[in-house]
Write the structure tokens for this entry.
Amino acid sequence: MTFVPLGALCALAIAALLGAGWRVAARTGSTGLERAMATAVLAGAAAVIEALALGLVGLGSSPVMLPLAAGATWWVRAPKLAHPRPRPRAELASWWRRLSPRGRLGVGALAGAAIYLVAWTLFHPYISLDAAIYHDPEVATWVKAGEPGSVAALS
């Protein structure tokens, strides 16, 4: 698969998981940033569960099945849970307006630092001895075998 379609499938999968997570998080009574954080946690948990479940049948690293599973998660949740009101953008904007100027500065600084850290890590990855000996081969084995979560004998 080429990079662009694979990236598009990944973006759609992320959007589907975040959409399902947002609807489930809305049922918890959380609002604003708390709902956004709950959404991220729920979406991440769903992604892990899907990869492990697909890994049981050898499809845990399939670039087609993982986005399909994410879409199925959204499709199962969407009809059962009403779309939360207010809309995500309006809710986060309301939360932002309630912050003091100092709070906005702090949140902006943290967001900027997080973006910088992610960008730095992507462009300058640190591969330690532990990662090179154990973690990277483990992930490569999972991708090759299609079974995330399995234990591979590396030595």
Remarks:
- The mean pLDDT is 83.
